[in-house]
Specification:
The complex is a heterodimer.
Chain A (H helix, E strand, L loop, with lengths): L1 H28 L6 H22 L14 H29 L4 H23 L14 E4 L7 E3 L1 H23 L1 H11 L1 H6 L4 H26 L6 H16 L4 H21 L5 H15 L10
Antiparallel strand pairs in A: 1-2
Helix pairs in contact in A: 1-5, 1-6, 1-8, 1-9, 1-10, 2-3, 2-4, 2-8, 2-9, 3-4, 3-8, 5-6, 5-8, 6-8, 9-10, 9-11, 10-11
Chain B lengths: L1 H34 L7 H16 L14 H23 L4 H21 L1 H4 L13 H4 L3 H27 L1 H11 L1 H6 L4 H27 L9 H14 L4 H25 L5 H22 L17
Helix pairs in contact in B: 1-7, 1-10, 1-11, 1-12, 2-3, 2-4, 2-10, 3-10, 8-10, 11-12, 11-13, 12-13
The chains are: A mainly alpha, B mainly alpha.
Chain lengths: 305, 318
């Protein structure tokens, strides 16, 4: 029981981080970006490349830090990949989405669907289809609670790292959106773009910031997925449905909604493994999606548009 | 000379049957998107439902798998349309009342889920190996060679023609005008007393049925289907066909199906010619990238497609 919850929270933190970026694109750029999942995949692989490069320069960077399976190399690679993925998101907007913005949201959705396929297949071409890992080091799960207490609880240090860093990232983002001028302009643009413009907010600047932040969060989520599961070129598209389910569950545009939605989708996935078996795990997100559409289509924290 | 000629004929008719089946599906997509503005990202899922339905009903009994009723192919195809239409009805009822994007997300979810079921529900779908020995109609009389292929081609083109004529009649009828009115301005159409939800749902269901029919036509031609025949790339190819041909124009949709399928086949042939045998599996994704670039270019440079929708409003003279 406890184990299911813990596993769910770990899947959920990856989904949450990805869902925040997707939710921001939906509320600020105003379209469902089907290529957002690919940013997670590219982020994960860019970090793999950077970390391989760094360890080639200095083998000491691969040495595990304390109880974790990875070394400083991966943490530096995470930062590098976050920067590159943010640029990738911005670049995609410049060459594609920006030009189509006048044609309406659905043209953007079609374009993002095409961009997703192109990005995924480029990744497949570049990296091949074999699953990869950041390190070959094996980790032993620490038993936090014995089997006699609610079925027991075991987690790896890596999983605790992912949970903690997710919490830090989300809190940081919350502070940025509520305290900084740019963050406030982003929220204003999401709520009423016309009015935001009248008050002197530069919409292009807000859009750029949205893509950059979405890219950074996607890279972090991708690396976390790589640490806790593995790297596959199809990881982006496999995560896309959980991301969308989390966004709609939380309510479009709500950061904490996306986080809560992500955690619920994660819990649903880990529960479904015990209930219907691992092969139908991805359908759990769909079940959550259908349920929320039937009961409360505006999501938990969403407002009616 | 003779074997060469029949080789070409056989290759050509294979190509045309595929393109024809795709054209039927794209016509369904055109009704949904081109005429009604409903964005379906799960086309491959609907095609799969049609293909599997017809296959399961018409195949001979198979141990360990449901279905295998040995029904006639024509009944299988009708059932394919019925079941796919039913799924369309469910999805539409759920998602069509909401913001446009929700339909996209829900249909995407349907496609993912159908892919999961196709891969895992071995007792229903045969799992990753799919369904084999799907009957090919008329084979008792025509054998397995070129005459059968040509006959099947004729049947496919005939079906395509029937679908085309029916759709043209439909979109030019008062119902079709309401459809376009809702697409352009839902509030205005509603204020004139048009029941926009019902009309959109009807359009979505009819479109889904055509996707199911296309899937069945494909299944009975190839003779076996597997989950990997219905990956998201199929959805994308079909969308590329509609966008290149010009959405909102049925002739454009058909032309797009034949053109893009030709482009796809040629790109595959070109890659095979350019890349060494050893690298081919690795280079296969490039074919997808190429078609992705084609669709993006088309959207940016010629958003109305080769044949866009005929303007219904006279241009104002200045």
């Amino acid at each position: 029981m406890l184990q299911i919850i813990a596993d769910g929270l770990i899947i959920g933190s990856v989904v949450s981080l990805g869902a925040i970026g997707l939710s921001m694109t939906l509320s600020i750029v105003r379209f469902s970006n089907f290529s957002h999942g690919e940013l997670l995949g590219w982020g994960a692989y860019l970090a793999l490349m950077a970390s391989t490069g760094l360890t080639a320069l200095n083998a000491g960077l691969a040495a595990p830090i304390g109880p974790f399976s990875f070394g400083w190399g991966l943490l530096i690679a995470l930062v590098v990949s976050a920067g590159l993925t943010a640029l990738l998101a911005l670049g995609l907007d410049t060459v594609l989405f920006k030009r189509l913005r006048k044609q309406g949201a659905i043209t953007l959705v079609i374009a993002s669907f095409g961009a997703a396929l192109a990005l995924r297949n480029l990744l497949l071409f570049w990296q091949g289809g074999v699953p990869r890992y950041y390190t070959q080091n094996l980790q032993i799960a620490i038993p936090l609670l014995p089997r006699s207490v609610w079925g027991g609880l075991r987690v790896t240090p890596d999983q605790l790292f992912v949970l903690t860093l997710t919490l830090v990232t989300v809190t940081g983002l919350h502070l940025f959106l509520s305290r900084s001028t740019l963050g406030r302009s982003m929220r204003a643009t999401a709520i009423n773009p016309g009015l935001a413009r009248v008050t002197g907010i530069d919409p292009e600047r807000v859009l750029r910031a949205t893509w950059l932040i979405g890219g950074v969060l996607a890279a972090v989520a991708g690396v976390f997925a790589g640490i806790t599961v593995q790297l596959r070129p199809t990881m982006g598209v496999d995560l896309l449905l959980p991301l969308f389910a989390a966004v709609i569950l939380g309510g479009i545009g709500s950061i904490w909604g996306a986080v809560l939605g992500g955690l619920i989708v994660g819990l649903a996935e880990s529960a479904s493994v015990t209930v219907v078996g691992a092969e139908y795990r991805s359908a759990a997100a769909f079940a959550v999606l259908i349920a929320i559409l039937m009961v409360r289509p505006t999501g938990l924290f969403g407002e009616k548009r | 000379m003779m074997p060469d000629l029949s080789g070409w004929l056989s290759y050509g008719s294979f190509f045309l049957v595929f393109a024809g089946a795709f054209a039927i599906i794209v016509l369904g997509l055109n009704l949904q998107w081109g005429f009604t503005g409903l964005f379906n990202v799960g086309v491959a899922g609907f095609v799969a439902i049609g293909a599997y339905t017809s296959a399961l009903l018409t195949t001979p009994e198979t141990a360990g798998r449901l279905g295998g009723l040995n029904w006639p192919v024509a009944v299988g195809m009708l059932a394919a349309m019925g079941v796919t239409g039913l799924v369309g009805l469910l999805v539409g009822t759920l998602a069509l009342r909401l913001r446009q994007d929700y339909l996209a997300i829900t249909t995407f979810g349907i496609a993912v889920t159908i892919q999961l079921v196709a891969n895992n529900a071995k007792g229903l779908t045969g799992g990753p190996f799919g369904v084999q020995f799907i009957p090919k109609p008329m084979q008792a009389w025509l054998g397995t060679g070129l005459p059968w292929t040509l006959a099947y081609l004729l049947m496919t083109l005939l079906l395509l023609a029937v679908v085309y004529v029916a759709l043209e009649k439909l979109v030019q009828s008062p119902w079709g005008r309401v459809l376009r009115a809702i697409r352009e301005d839902e509030d205005a159409a509603s204020s004139l007393g048009k029941r926009s939800f019902a009309v959109r749902l009807q359009s979505f269901v009819i479109g889904s049925m055509l996707m199911g029919l296309g899937g069945a036509v494909y299944a009975h031609f190839v003779g076996f289907i597997a989950p990997e025949d219905f990956l998201p790339i199929l959805t994308f190819q079909l969308w590329a066909m509609l966008i290149v041909g010009g959405s909102g124009n049925n002739r454009g949709a058909i032309a797009g199906a034949f053109l893009v399928w030709g482009f796809w086949t040629a790109a595959g042939g070109l890659l095979r010619g350019l890349v060494s045998q050893a690298d081919q599996a690795r280079a296969a994704p490039l074919q997808v990238v190429l078609i992705g670039v084609l669709i993006a270019l088309m959207l940016v440079m010629r958003p109305r497609g080769l044949m866009g929708e005929a303007l219904a409003v006279a241009k104002s003279r200045t």
